[in-house]
Every structure is written in C-alpha cells, then in structure tokens.
Amino acid sequence: MYTDSQWQAIYDQGTNLLVSASAGSGKTAVLVRRVIEKIKRQQLSVDQLLVVTFTEAAASEMKERIQNALQEAINEETDQEQKNHFTRQLTLLPMANISTLHAFCSKVIQRFFYLIDLDPSYRMLTDETETILLKEDVWDELRETFYEENQEIFYRLTENFSNDRSDSGLEDLVMSMYNFARANPAPFDWLEGLIENYRINDLAESELYQQIIRPQLLKSLDEILQTYQWLISDSQASEELQKITDLAQNEAAIVQQLEQLLAANQLDAVFTLLEDLSFPTFPSPRKKEVKEAFGEVITECKEYRDQAKKNLLNLKEIYFSVSPAEQIERLQEALPIVEELVRVEKQFIEAYSAAKREKSMLDFNDLEHFTLQILQAEVDGKRPAETYYRQRFAEVLVDEYQDINQLQETILQRLSNQTNGNLFMVGDVKQSIYGFRLADPTLFIQKYHDFAHEDGGRRIILAENFRSRKEVLNFTNLVFTQLMDQSVGQIEYDQQAELINGFSAFPETKEFAPELLVYQKASETPEWIEDKSMGEIFMTATKIRQLIDQGFEIYDKKQKAMRPLQYEDIVLLTPTKSHNLTILEVFKQLGIPLAINDTQNYFQSTELRIMISLLQIIDNPYQDIPLAAVLRSPIVGLQEEELAMVRLALPQKEYYQAVLRYAETQEDRLAERLKDFLAHLNDWREFARREAIADLLLKIYNETAYLDYVLGMPAGQQRHANLLALIERAKDYERSSFRGLYQFIRFIEKMQEKDKDLGEPPTEEISDAVRVMTIHGSKGLEFPVVFLMDMSKSFNVQDTQRNYVFDEKLGLGVKLLTPDTRVRKETLLFQIVKQKNLNKLLSEEMRKLYVALTRAEQKLFLVGSYDDEASTYKKWSKAARNESVVLDAGLRNGQRDSFFDWVGMTLFRHAQMDKYQTDYVVNQVAKVKQHPATFTIDFVEPQTIAELVQGYLPEIKTLELPQGTVNIDALKKRLLFEYPYPEATKTTSYQSVSELKRLYDDPDNRQTMDISENSMTYRFTADALNEPKFLGTLQDASPAEIGTATHLVMQLLPLTKKPSETEIQELIAELVARKTLMPMVAEKISVASILQFFDSEIGTYVLQHAEKLHREEPFAMLLPADQLFKDYQNQDEILIHGIIDGYLEFDHEILLYDLKTDFYTPEREQQLLDRYRGQLHLYKDALEKAKHKTVSSTFLIFLQGNKAIDLLRTPKP
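Below the sequence we write its predicted structure tokens.
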C-alpha cells in the first residue's frame, strides 16, 4: 500500500522530477516500483532505463528487488504476451544499466573511446596505494623541474605554504587543489577563475563585496541587533537597571549606523567606526537590594551584552581588521602567488594525466571526465554519443541525488532529455553528509526551490516515515524544527520537511520516549573511570545491561508482536572511531557481546607498527628507532637495560653498528641473542631482494611465530586478522605498477603522514551482539534501539586552520607569509571562504545529527556529559528567550558547539522544562512549548555507575526461607555473628609455593598481604587450567618462562650418563617439534649452564645416584595459618601445593635441591638466599612429613652462575 505522495512519485512523468524522500519514507521501494510500472504500463525494456546508485551494494539490492518484483509479476500475469515481456526483462536484467555512475561511465568509454582517441586497453587505477605513490612520483619530478627553472616566484610560492622544516606544505596544497579542480566539469576554467577575485581595484564595487560580503555583513548585524533588543527588553524590568538599558541602546544605535553605512557602500566609514569602537564597562548595579532582587536578570543582560560584543568584534576581525585599502593591497600582493599556483597546478594535472596514459591507467575521476568529453565530442557538427544515450534511455533515475558533485551533474544532464524532461532524482538533502567527498548538496537545494514553482521540473515530498515510532519522530521534529534552516543546515525544516508517522502498528506505551543520558562529573570518581568519555561508556553499558536484564520489550515487525530486547537489536553510533577500543574493553568487562570493527587505527596497532619497523630495517638497518623497536618487541625480546648495554658498545655511531659491535666482541647471552637476530635479519634482507613482499611477510611470520603470539594478546583475533591483512595489502601493492620493499614502506609512511588509514579487516561475526559503527557507516540502515554516543564532543574545525581554504564557488583563500617577520597575514578572501567553510561544516554536522536520530526504529538514547546539572540548564537556557520557532543563528553556529548543546537548547523550550525556567525566560513559542514530543533527561553520577557496575558482578543466590516456625533468637544470633578471626579473611585457603615465596622476600615480615580497597572490584577473571605461556605462542619470554622451560629440559634429560651438548640440543629440538616448546623460548634456554651443572660437584653426585633421583615431584600439605602469617589467633589450616625440582632419597636421609635460573652474582647472593629460603623450608617440611625421613641438605642451585649453596649450612644473617 502506497501513500498519495508515493503514488505520485511512482507514476508522474512528462517532466524532470525531484523526490525529496525523508528518512524511512520508502524511497528505494518507490524507485523499484517506478521501474516496474515503466516496464508494465509503458512496455519499456529494462535496458531503456539508466538507474544510478551511490554504491555497488545499493545497485545489487536494486537489481534484486526488481528481479523479485518481475518474478512476482510473471507468476500473477495471465496474458501470455505480457508474461513473455516480463520474462525477457528478467533475461536482460543482469546487463541492465543499474549501477554506480563510475560503472556506467566505464561502459560509455568502452563503447565510444574512439571519439576522444583513448586507448581502450586501459586498466583501472583502483588501489589507493598506487594512486598515492604515482601522484607523489609525478610531483617529485615536476617539483625538481620547477626548482631547475630557478624562478623567484616559485620560491615565493613554496615558502608561503611551507614551514621551516620542509616544503611538503605546497605538495599538500597541490593535491587538495587537484581534487577540487577535478570535481569540476572544466578543471582549467575553474583554476583560472581562482585568480579573478584577487584582481580587485575597488572593493565596494566588486562582485565579491556586492554578492558575498555585504549580504553576510547585514545578516550578521541583524543578529547582533536582535541580541541587543533582548538585552533592552530584560533591562527594562526595573528603573534600577536604567544604566544597562542606556548602554544597550547606545551600542544598538552603532549597529544601526553600521547597517546604514554598508547599504551606502561607505566601507572606509565602516572601518573608521569599527576602529574607534570601544565598549564601556558593564554597569552592574551596586545596591545590595537591587542585586538581590534582579540578580538573574543582571546576569542574563551581561551575557547578552557579552555575546553581542563578541559577535561585533568578530565581524571586525573578519572583514575590517585592516582598512579596505589594505585589504586590496593584500589581495594584490597575493595575486602573483595565486597565479603561480594555478600554473603549477595545471602542469601537475597534465603531468599526472601523462603518467597514467603512459601506464595505460585510468582512475575513477578519469572515467567521469572522459565520459563527459565523449558526450561532448562532435563529429560533423553532431554529438553521436550524447544523441545515442538520449535516444536510448526513456528515463534516467538517480538515487541519493543529494551526494553528487558538479561534474556528475553535468554528465547526467548530457544523458537526459532536456526537452521532455526525463530525469528522476530521489534523495534527502537533510542526509547529505559526504562533504569530504566534495558532494555538493546545493544542486539538490536549488532544484528543491525551483521545482516547487515547477520551474524546470516538479517536486514531490515523501514525509511519511514507515520506520520509527512516533516518539522518535516527534523528538526529531522538535529538535530540527528549531535547528535546521537555510543558514545552518542549508534547507528549511518546515512543515513539509517534518516527519509524519506512517506505521501505526506499534503498541502504545510510555516506555519509548527518547532519553538523554548525561554523565555528570563529581568530586569523588572511581579511579577506573579515567575520563568523561569512559564515564559515558560505562553509563551506556550499564543501561544496556538494565534493558536486557529487566526484559525490556520491543515490537517485532515480522512477528507482529512484542518480544524481549536482544543485544543484536542495539547499535552504538559514534561520531568517530576514537573511543572504539575503550568501548570494546568496557563492554567485555560487563559481559556484553560486541560486534565492532576498526577498534583502532590499522597502521597504529601494536602488531602492525612492529612489523612495519621490521620491514624498515630489512630495507635499511641503519634506522635507529625502527631497529630499537624490533629489538624491544616480542620478536627479539630485549629489555631496556639490554638495549642500553648495546648502546654503550658504540655510543657515537648508528645503533645498528652498536648491535654489530656487541655481537662481535661479547660472549654473554645477550650477544648470542643478537647474533641469532642478525642471522635472521641478513636472511630476510637477502630474501627480500629476490622474492615478493607477501612471501617475505609469510616467512617472517613462520620463523618468528608472531602470528601465534598475537592470538594470545587482548583482541587477539583482530590482531591476527590485521597481520594477515598486511599480506593481502602487500599482494595488492605488487599487482600495481610499483615494486620493491622501499616503495611499499614509503606508501605506508605516506598513508600515516596524510592521516589516512585502512579499515581493520573484519573478524568472525557474533550473532547476538551490540553493534558499533560510525554515523556515516549507519546511513541507509535502521535499528530497533540506538545509542548516539559522544554527544558532547566539540565539532572539529581543524580543516579551517590551514594556510589555505577552498570553496567550489568562491575559489581559493590564502594567507600571506611575510618573509622578514615570518608572520602570516589573512587575506579578505581567506576570511570569507573560511567563514563559509565553517558554516558548511556546521551544516553537515547538523545533517549528521539528523541521520543519527532517524536510524532509531523504537528507542533512542543520547549519551553525553556535562560538569553538573545546574550549569547545563543554564547553558541551554540561552535559547529560552528566542521569539521565533527557529533558534537564532548565533546560538547554533558557535564553533565549539556540540550535538548536546544543540539538542539541549531545543528541549529547554519545551513545556517539560518549565520548572527549570525563571520567570523572565519562560518560552512563549506555542509550537515549541506545546510540541507533542516527550523525552527524559537523566543526570548520572560516577557513584551511581559504580553501584550499577558492582551489581553486575556474579550474582549471590538468595536462599529460600525454610518451612515452619522461625526461631527469631537463633536468626538474630546468626545475623549478628562476628567472625573471631578477621585476619583469615584476607588470604585464601589455597596457596601455591610460588605465591607464598613472596612472603619470604623479607623473612621477618610474614604478614598478610593487603588487598587494596581501591582495586577495580568489578574486574574478575575465572580461574582456569591455562596452558603455560612458555608452552604457548609467546615469544617475549620472561625470566620466569625461561626458567620453566629449563626445568622441563632438566626433568626429561636421560641421566644414565653425563648428557652431552648434542643430546641436550636434540631434546630441545624434539620438544619444539612436538610443539611442547615454542622456538623463541627454546632458543633462550642456556645449554651451557646445564652442562656446567653436570660438571659441578652436586651435578656429578646426582649422576652417580641417578637411580635414587626424583625430579619435578608434586606435593600438597596442610599448614597451620599462623606459621605463615603473623597475628593469626585461630587454628585454621591452609593447603599448600607445589613441585619440587629434585631430591635424592636414601635409606635414612634426603638430599633436596632446587634449580634457579636467576642471574647470580656474589653481590646478590644474600638477596637471593633470603628470597628462596622460605620456599626451600616448605619443601623440606613437605618431604619430611611425607617420607618420615630427615632432609640433611637443601641445595639452592643457580645455573647461570654455576653456584650451589646448602641452606642448612648457610646460617640466616
């Protein structure tokens, strides 16, 4: 069933049609139905239609829907001729022109390439790797040519846009300029047009002033005057405030005078008036009784005055910081620099095109430009390609029309019939959020206004929303009715734009009102809430747990019934990916399954940075930082102290030479590890010279087991996928026209420099999980429950902070560098373009907010943070005096505003907020005050979050009350019972010797280990029989892990005779082959130390009595707690367990020994004895109790120092 406006969009014809389809209005269904009706009623063939989509995915979905509709029509049709017609359309559908514009352009070029003498055997330059490197190579070569020309103007150009460290600033400008120029149908004409605004002799008579500057100035002055009028209205509340009224009226008169001067084009007079402008001190009343009676009014007046003053000074800074004559001088000074820039840019475009032509390559932009050239190409005064397509296509249908640029618009106009109007455009300018791709929403907006009067076409508005509950729609309307207009948002959110509820099956309930969740700072905040962002994330996670645990229900459109909410019904929408890793960690702690990609920047992830560093030193080992990074990484595993020792080997040379020197001159374990690494490095370097990069990476992964290692790290599956993706990226790179490891590294570095990145590769999908995606990624999707995150994040205006700014229509604005002072001066054009870009940025941010809110089907949460409730409402209250429905532009276009500021101001004017409004700021706009929207605002403090988090720890089961009579006295006795031994609660009843040995670090300090009261008690990990790390995938072996591996070798060595080095090495190799030990751990076992042990007196004695030897023998025993911990007064016992390295059991006595791999020196001997004395004492006690024999010797054996010490014969100091 379709609405009247949908039927109109399906059937109207005879002219160009623009369908403004609001979110959830079923535009795709309408587009498909229009195609089907064209086939049915007009007997058109599907190949007579051109359907342009924004993405390949959208094209595939469109084809699938048309296929299903055709199949349904075949099944229902009784007329055989018509059925044959439908069947033929199914056959033609796979080859139909339903695709992206790029894909269609490729077909045009393949058919008509000869019209522009284009080689048809080109290949597409689709890989960003190759594109960046090719552009950079072209620029490097071209730049050298410019330097060789030795022209002063080029040096001035370079200096103007570069810094003291490099001339890369000019390169960045050239690349940005290229993108803007190529988005235009006539790039060279657009470039030439940049120069015209710098050729101004009379500012007042210039087109720049008349069409751009004066209208904007007058509009801004009107807004300032409105602020003064509010100030005057407030101050007239009492005669006691007359001085404030007088001040406001005087300054308002100056604003009116400025308007009159501007209208008369008297710019010098305007400059003089602003130059002499001064602002007297605000006349706050001194009388105590006046302050008490009118304190809030006085504060409000001062805020209005401050706002008006700020805005007036801002206008002065932008347009009249210097005199009009000085503005002209700056523009004329910049003229030769801009002219040189245009010359350089033109040559770059030509050189880059030549480089692609030489390699028989085209990029996506070329597809569009060559298509336009083909359509414009004339043969004998006619345009054969244009004629062909205009005759072939009965209609051209364009989806997401709001996201096209001027070049694409020109192509569509060439393809469509200009006489009869067969262009069908559908989109929603309120959802135009691709400005970074140079989408031009003004193309849609212009037709939206023109077609309203049937000037060149007809406008159809689809306002009914079939996606969301009325609570979501009403809330969205309340917000955007006040926020969006032509000044901010670029389109009026009037009655025609408001969303209308089109789905009536949702059950009526009050539970679906949108909620604002506001994290509120507090003096006492748990240390595990590190900042406001983390507080917001914890607040969101606990809210989700509440919804799930309390059985919150949503309506299932398929089942046509309410059902419990599931995790997969929920999405978190984020402005950026910057907090994704924190979201992942917090949700994991609270047991919430999460489906999330791009948790962090791909090239910035630890495992990728290590591999890139390794590739850098394979290419060139004389790079200190990458070399140190690899040596410190798990691949080699050096400690910081060891890195310092290497540095000392050759302090004044490159670090690589120090590594070589240490490996050559030293004979310790560190030197052995360095030699081993250098052998691998040389092997990899040799391999890299003759083999592919992908094969090199695979070889490194295999030889280092690094792939296995990262699986054991947090987010191991993602890290594993990242490393595999690097291999695929290398394969893609080597399929390009570039080769070699150096170029590959250079590409990655360039990506990092330009703050570009690759999305992290997806891992295995989790079925029932909360999803996380950016607002851009959510466009076109819908979700039952939406949490819009990070609402308090300030808008990013960094793009306006550079030394140049672009606009498709105004052109280029530049700053001028003064060579002597190194001070940059802003040209008038720079200020104008910058202000326009700020407005475009805010407009796009507003449209992003619209996209985010309209993703929600049923429940919407808006998450942000403020310092406290009172200051929040005070900030929002600035909107309350607004006398029109739409908020004053000055309240909406502040550079530091956020989504929360915008939304909060619109809500504050609603009747629900009356209790927070003072008498003098009560909102009187009925449409806003009585709006049917409902919402809740919940300020959440950290302590509340902490209590909720604590509640999601493992639950304690409640015991049921026993049957029968309750003995009250007995119950009280149980409830009031105090455990007589509280110290026993501070340790566990089960201890390992390795845990207990810490008690013996200081033998006289055997007291209970404190449990930090500030610890993150919400973090619990279940005990598990985990595989020992040294048996797993670890490469960065710690001393403890090397020790465990050494003990394993000592346990398995056959002792029928003295082991040889070969036998020990063979055993280690066998353990590695059986995957009992990993190679990187096995290599760190000191074979020399083991051999020395069996050469020692105690080792020889063990060999002589090997038949009496017990190795790695486990034991367990109960030990009174007061023997371990002082201050214990009870008789509790603690179970002790451990493994004894070895002992010789004779008839009446036992010789006990324990092997240690600690680094031994005589200076450390006493410290080591103190550390292990208690541990050996426990072993001794355990053996004596179990064997009923005396332990006559307890040897502590340090393998590294070949030292054996009998503790029974070494008195305690």
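The chain has a mean pLDDT of 87.
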